[in-house]
Predict the 3D structure of the following.
Amino acid sequence: MDDNTGELSGLFAPERVAVVGATESEGSIGRAIVENLRADFAGETIPVNPNYDEVFGLACYPDLGSVPESSEIDLAVVVVPPTIAVEAVRDCGEAGVRNVVVITAGFGETGSEGASRERELTEVAEQYDLDLVGPNSLGVMSTTSGLNATFGPENALPGSISFMSQSGAFITAVLDWATDEGIGFKDVVSLGNKAVLDETDFVRAWDDDPDTNVILGYLEGVEDGGAFIDAAREASGDTPVVMVKSGRTEAGAQAVSSHTGTLAGSEQAYEAGLEQAGVLRVENVQELFDFAQILSGQPLPDSDDVAIVTNAGGPGVMTTDAVGDSRLSLASFSESTVEALSEAMPEEANVYNPIDAIGDADIDRFERALDLALGDENVGCAVVLSAPTAVIDFDDLARVITDLQADHGKPVAAVLMGGERTESAKEILREGGIPNYFDPARAVGSLDALSRYREISGREYESPEAFDVDRERARAVLSRAVERGDNRLGVEAMDLLDAYGISTPEGVIADQPEEAVAAAQNIDGDVVMKIVSPDILHKSDIGGVKVGVTNEDVYDAYEDLVTRARNYQPDAEILGVQVQEMVDLDAGTETIIGMNRDPQFGPLLLFGLGGIFVEILEDTETRVAPVSEREATEMVEGIRSAPLLRGARGREPADRDAIVESLQRLSQLVTDFPAILELDVNPLVAGPDGVQAVDVRLTVDTDELDSSDPNSADRPTEELDS
Ligand code: ADP
Ligand code: MG
């Protein structure tokens, strides 16, 4: 076996492939696969089917066990009916075949019977330690060995892009189009239902594969967000990972009762998770392949300064606009470049960027202009545009562009505009790894992707800090929810924050008015009083918060708060009234820190402008926890109102470091306790000298808390350390 393909080499570089369910029967999938394998595959194809002695002239065996040296079969492709598919996979395991592609459909995608069949399949795969693709997969391809173990209509062209897709239909469509465009692939896999191998496994495998230069994905969801982030981070240091935006997932639509739950849904998790993973996320299929092509064909730019060389004014302006919308900027040429251009160009030409060599520019003038531009130290990359003219031949121009790109080693995108006359020029450019577009915005978008990837590949990921916290105390607070048989906790759980070092004002929960009075006397100045009830989510909505209560008013305030709660909901469970120290809101800003647990990506942290208008403002940033100090800082700096925190209109700036640290501590809390499903600290009042969490609300998965062993509680934090 070729060990170039790393971990999943048996899957992509097999020497012997068995087709379980092979047949010549017209129109069947079993036939299509055997035919596709026979077309180009360099290795051996072995049909397996008890009904035949021969399939397309190849000896056919009744079962895998009967194949001579069956344990040396590298890959089995299973295309039998669903009712016998699990048994067929078990036979693979028994025969010693480690890699299996299950084409058969009729599993998890079809309802409860299929779902239980899929569970069985997973169990069998685990039992025999199989690397299994599918079920419900179109199959796999690897152009190195001509392997086409799919039932798609054609094989891919060879190339350095490896592509995974959750939709098989999308693969056939893409391959058909890519072949026309001259885009080639290394490996292609149709993930199917991802019963065993998922996107994370393929990111890892292709990261290790020297023949894969770009990893592309069309995903509708991510199985294990945390693992995916780790794998993609690792890969994206030297192999770009580009993913097309997926649809929203069903799983994301859980009932939420927190602000964070409302503001940080599955779409935010996906976006944050992919960004943190260093994935270039694209909006559509065109971008997916534009990025793939330029990333596999062109070097990364040293700078984001673009030179534009054109013979047409209008397209030059369009390109300049597109640069304005991107993270790139227009290069300003050095004096010597401007001088040299002035000498080489006619009077009417523009020698500043964009260089307009004007309509009568011949190939020599174009060449001189591009050579000077690419040679300028202030230029990182270039777009070359040309409209068809009588004096320029696109093939010549394509050759000039290709040669100069290679000479200067800077990335170039071409916009040779036109129809059929561009075809052969495109071919020449393609051989030089240079993409050609009709639309200048696409050329700029592709160069922009190179710049984004340069930033990603240079990232250094910091590990999250592990603060010294009181885990056992936090656990004790959470278990109150279990004891009470309610999964919601409110301000009675303030200790949870304290245990993790997030500062809270002094506060006491009183269940008698006299007790409230005594508590208020122990607190300096006026106090804030709040109703404490798991049935009241938003206390101020029902008049359940009184700010600035003087000592003499505490007794009446207590009774009033309880009466209001009873009026609002007669059977509300009332735990008492919180008497809390006043926090100076004038000097501070109300912010929110929170977490919502996403089914795919896990704990999603949120930071934003808080208070009672949080959902109206919707000014928030999200990241998948655990976050490093840098990520927490990016969250705080990333909101639109960040200038407010820096101190606008004569206000003192908020203590940013304290906010950042609170986010990191919250990150640690929700990582340590997977039982916390949602949590809001709203507001976290951010003053000039520190922060105060004045309110908290959370939902706990009481089963999860029950089932977790308290002695194992130290694990997650230690893992973070390493
Ligand atoms: P809820 O969000 O359930 O309505 P909060 O405890 O967040 O209840 O209180 C509502 C608002 O009251 C806060 O956004 C804040 O403006 C104000 N507030 C609450 N506690 C304090 C406090 N200790 N000091 C000053 N203002 C407070
Ligand atoms: Mg609140």
